[in-house]
């Protein structure tokens, strides 16, 4: 993968740069793929359901509305994503089981951690444009992530 800084130098304003300073939790620090999305609030049922389906190298972008109250992904859901072939997960919210996530071959970026489980009601939306940090993540757009940050096609 080409470094995000070099990609930005090559493509400039054709790429959006996420200004949020997300933390990296997975063992994979550089990942890329087409965007899939989930919008949810303190409810990870749709996240669990989607990450159990074939990922084909995609990156799931989860708009958890920036909530730090509950985790939207832990080690069991992350292992499901690894098994299903997802490249990574970007969460505008929290994860749990961070030590276990650190040993998994998956790119994971999130705001932080919280050991508290989320609801399992299935509320939210899948594969709709989501926006956070001033960036719009459209399903199918290519996302690039590394130690310097996250870029996504406009």
Please explain how this structure is put together:
It is a single chain. With 154 residues, the chain is of the alpha/beta class. The chain is 18% helix and 36% strand. The protein contains four helices and twelve strands, in the order αβββαββαβαββββββ. It has helices at 4-11, 45-51, 75-83, 98-101, and strands at 15-17, 23-24, 31-39, 59-63, 71-73, 88-95, 107-113, 125-126, 130-132, 135-137, 142-146, 149-153. The strands form two sheets. Strands 1, 2, 3, 4, 5, 6, 7, 8, 11 and 12 form a ten-stranded mixed beta sheet that branches. A two-stranded antiparallel sheet has the order 9-10. Helix 3 links the parallel strand 5 and strand 6.
> What low-confidence regions span 5 or more consecutive residues with pLDDT below 50?
none
- Give a short account of the largest sheet: 10 strands, mixed
Shape: globular
> What is the percent of helical residues?
10-25%
